[in-house]
């Protein structure tokens, strides 16, 4: 398994008392699998993705990537694991406004001090059809183009696992469909495992597995 989350609990302390967002959640994902997670707003979908990415630590339970318990890793080890094994695509792109499309895509490789960062970034931009936009800043790109740059950035390190949080949620339907088709094509080509959070039943149906987050747990369809 590339991903194994076991008995995951997540509690937040609030002025009104503790809130249990996740309560004994289990999820296993094998290499190349695509899993859609749906659920009502506030059900904990984004919290779950943060835990799977090692950006937060569960109150109880474990999250393992490539067999390594994320809670047992140092910040440096976590950063190295994320850089090597995990790609993340957000709804709002999160591109660096002062960097060109090419520089945004090469950023994860630059952090790894890869000698071939620019070459690999150009290949990744070409795979999302944006070679001609390599020198453009995000402000000069459309929403769909920005999301394609974000997708190229997430996949340029060839991660074992891709986490996507409503990747087409801020796009119009036609542009969103094109980005989603590209996402699934690239994931299939690389045999990358995908965990996708979405409100879209149509997008969910494109995944090999579907699960609903309800009452702090995942219920597979």
Describe it for me?
- The relative contact order is 0.20.
- Helix content is 35%, strand content 28%.
- The two termini are 20 Å apart.
- Strand 1 and strand 2 (17-29) form a beta hairpin.
- With 221 residues, the chain is α/β, with parallel strands linked by helices.
- A 6-stranded mixed beta sheet has the order 6-7-8-3-9-10.
- It has helices spanning 45-52, 75-85, 101-111, 117-127, 143-155, 173-190, 201-205, and strands at 3-14, 17-29, 34-38, 60-65, 68-69, 86-89, 161-165, 193-197, 209-214, 217-220.
- The chain has a single domain, classed as P-loop containing nucleotide triphosphate hydrolases (Rossmann fold, 3-Layer(aba) Sandwich).
- Helix 3 packs across helix 4, helix 3 packs parallel to helix 5 and helix 4 (117-127) crosses helix 5.
- It is built from 7 helices and 10 strands.
How is this fold's topology laid out?
Elements: E1 3-14, E2 17-29, E3 34-38, H1 45-52, E4 60-65, E5 68-69, H2 75-85, E6 86-89, H3 101-111, H4 117-127, H5 143-155, E7 161-165, H6 173-190, E8 193-197, H7 201-205, E9 209-214, E10 217-220
Parallel strand pairs: 3-8, 3-9, 6-7, 7-8
Antiparallel strand pairs: 1-2, 1-4, 4-5, 9-10
Helix pairs in contact: 3-4, 3-5, 4-5, 5-6
